[in-house]
Amino acid sequence: MTYVDVSKDAAGMKRMLEHSRGDRTVPVIVEGKKVTVGYNGAG
Fold first, then answer.
1. What phi and psi, each to the nearest 5 degrees, are found at residue 18?
2. Sign of the torsion formed by the C-alpha atoms of 28, 34, 40 and 41
3. Residues near 29 by Cβ (< 8 Å), separated by ≥ 6?
4. For residue 21, what pLDDT is reported?
5. What letters, b where the CB count within 10 A reaches 16 and e where it falls short, cover 5-40?
6. Residue-wise pLDDT tens digits, 29-39
7. How many CA atoms lie within 13 Å of 16's alpha carbon, on the beta-carbon side?
8. Which residues contact 4 (CB under 8 A, 6 or more apart)?
9. Using an 8 Å Cβ cutoff, are 12 and 26 in contact?
10. Domain count of the fold of the chain
11. Rounded to two decimals, what is the model's pTM?
12. 19, part of any domain
């Protein structure tokens, strides 16, 4: 697991938005090719 504080890491924010297709809901969990946005995929 890698924790990224996107409020302090601009490159991390960019990666998060790429994975979430622009959705700013957190957390964004990336497991291989599977991406889950929000808790239980609720985002």
1. -65, -45
2. positive
3. 35, 36, 37
4. 95
5. ebeeeeeeeeebeeebeeeeeeebebeeeeebbeee
6. 999 999 999 98
7. 21
8. 12, 15, 16
9. no
10. 1
11. 0.83
12. yes
* 17 is a domain residue: yes
Residue 41 is classified by DSSP as: G
The predicted-structure confidence for 7-32, as pLDDT tens digits, reads as follows: 999 999 999 999 999 999 999 999 99
Q: Whole-angstrom Cα distance, residue 39 to residue 43?
A: 7
d(CA 1, CA 21): 21
Does residue 2 form part of some domain?
A: no
Please indicate, yes or no, if residue 22 is contained in any of the structural domains.
yes
Q: And the tokens for 20?
A: 């979430």
The range of the structural domain enclosing residue 28 comes to 10-41
